[in-house]
Amino acid sequence: MLLHILGAGSVGSLIAANLRASNALHDIRLIVRTPLQVKELAAIKPSPSWSQADVPGRASTTAQVDEAAEDEPAEATIIVEQSGVTSDYAGLQIEYAGPSSESAARATQSSGSLGPAWTAQLNALRRTIRHTRDDWISSLIVTTKAQYTAEAIYPLRSRLSAYSTIVFLQNGMGILDEINTSLFPDPEDRPSYIVGTLTHGIWRKPSQGRAYRHIVWAAQGELQFGVLPSNPVREVMQVKVNNPALDPTIETAVVPDHLTVTEPDADSLEKTVKALLECQALQPRLNRLATSQMLQLQKLAVNCVINSLTAIFDVRNGRLPDSEQFDGLASDICDELSSVLAADFATRGDVAVEFQTMQEYDRARFPPLHRLAGPTLLANVQLIALQTRKNVSSTLADIRNVSETTEIDYMNGYIAKLGRRHGIPTPVNDMMVRLVKTQLDLRRVATARRQAKAARQASSRRSSSDSV
Ligand SMILES: CC(C)(CO)[C@@H](O)C(=O)[O-]
């Protein structure tokens, strides 16, 4: 089957490598949005004539398209490193879905990341990349950061239908509401969704000019997911009675057979689920939707604590418990989160039945041993911090890369927003958001100053060599 993966960061690369390892017959296509990502992923050697011109800022006189490269499909190779041992996963297709290569090259040229020769090379890539831009997308696995999801799916919108399946594998909450409102307002036209939680610890090694992606799989976790079939897919499901995929009040486990349909064109949900379940090394598990929702909220607590604190203090996950302050801070974040979720569940009609029927749930807080009670969330956070101790959290990675934004608005920011809606103060989570944003601002200013200084030094070196 043809599986599209949107976002070729560490999570996208991990999924692509595992899909490739599990089934050599899959066509796996990485959709990337920047020419730099194409450059990093495509195992295409620039022709020797390009290397000269590939100096940022130097006009290209020799940038011609290598005729041989035109017929050669652009393919990506991903290297996965586990305990120091590396494995290659090749033959992955690349689709460039960003702005035109010319304008992107122009835009990035000033930062020195692409030279004019890359414009030519990207044009060659665009011709050789195996895709037609208007082909229907049956299965789209979204691994872009929460804050970029809507804008990343937007250009693909016309290629998605109610018979497509979108798999969301991201940190943070609030993404589905945003996508439904902005891209799929009509429920009849909405694709099937698979909502997943990934607890593997992974990070990306800087490419250092290599033409391939290298990720480090630092900690083994799980891939747990639940399904939300689209309305038209529900209509054609073979099992109509006692189907837990159709009725969340049925408490039996969901199995792929529950997703079998009578129309062959509507089978993308079943096929996508099977493809994910084949990725044994990811420890995949298909859950009831209620279980999936629960896991997502537990993961939200993990992210609210680990991602914010590692980003603020610039440390790997495992360093956090070194401070005596960690448990107290983590507990304050989890307690606030738990109270906000309890208030939210009291007002929502669409939450998992498990919560609606919970006897002891007094609508202000969860009972002491409940999975969403503050102390239980804290215990889980402490465990994950140790299990992923070598990991650079995704938010810290954003800070270190001086990204435009971080996922913090979909983590602690999501809790703060929900708290405001229910009149529950969230001072600790508010502060985490502000501190992470401050950290990013400071990095951005420091980087800009460093670049300006380097540019000044380069120009004074040039003028002194001109005057010799
Ligand atoms: C589990 C986790 C915190 C591990 O680093 C991960 O979700 C991350 O990096 O965001």
TrEMBL record:
GO cellular component, one term: mitochondrion
InterPro entries: 6-PGluconate_DH-like_C_sf, 6PGD_dom2, Ketopantoate_reductase, KPA_reductase, KPR_N, NAD(P)-bd_dom_sf
Domain of life: Eukaryota
Molecular-function annotations in GO: 2-dehydropantoate 2-reductase activity; NADP binding
Domain Ketopantoate reductase C-terminal: 296-438
Every Ketopantoate reductase N-terminal domain range: 4-42, 134-228
Stored Pfam families: ApbA, ApbA_C
Keywords of this entry: NADP, Oxidoreductase
Signal peptide range in chain numbering: none
Record-linked PANTHER family: 2-DEHYDROPANTOATE 2-REDUCTASE, 2-DEHYDROPANTOATE 2-REDUCTASE-RELATED
Family to which this protein belongs: Belongs to the ketopantoate reductase family.
Name recorded for this polypeptide: 2-dehydropantoate 2-reductase
Native organism: Mixia osmundae (strain CBS 9802 / IAM 14324 / JCM 22182 / KY 12970)
Gene name of this polypeptide: Mo03038
